[in-house]
Write a structure and sequence with these properties.
This protein is of the alpha+beta class. The protein has 2 domains: 51 residues, no CATH class; 54 residues. The chain is built from 2 helices and 5 strands. It has a 3-stranded antiparallel β-sheet with strand order 1-2-3, with no helix packed on it. Strands 4-5 form a two-stranded antiparallel ribbon. The longest helix is centred in the last third of the chain and has 29 residues. The model has no long low-confidence stretch (mean pLDDT 79).
Length: 119
């Protein structure tokens, strides 16, 4: 948690430096200042992105149209399965969101999302 040290100064929870309020990002979720300073946030994000295995896809495997990996062209079976599961989860979440919005608006138009399978 950010600790107020003086007027306009806060302590970064990661590096412990006393910095000006402008050195902390504002959270989109609750509109409050983050606990890590901008420098520590960038370093954390960079380490996180580099550690993700899904980002270790070669440029040749990216679609020239979208910039996303073409799942069927991925040679590593673990990466391919992870991408398939991620895509499946994303489509499922989009369908659930669409159905929820239709219920909220009272829209009786049939959804183009597939119904739940009995598997």
């Amino acid at each position: 948690m950010n600790q107020a040290v003086g007027i306009g100064l806060y302590v970064c929870s990661h590096c412990g430096e006393k910095l000006a309020l402008q050195e902390f990002n504002v959270s989109r979720k609750d509109n409050l200042r983050e606990h890590y300073c901008k420098k520590c946030s960038r370093e954390y994000a960079r380490r996180y992105r580099s550690s993700k295995k899904l980002e270790r896809v070669s440029p040749e495997q990216l679609s020239p149209r979208t910039g996303y990996p073409v799942i069927t062209e991925i040679k590593d079976p673990d990466v391919r399965m992870a991408l398939l599961l991620q895509a499946k989860a994303r489509v499922r979440q989009m369908c659930l969101d669409k159905r929820r919005r239709q219920r909220e608006t009272g829209d009786d138009e049939p959804s183009d999302c597939p119904e739940k399978s009995s598997r």
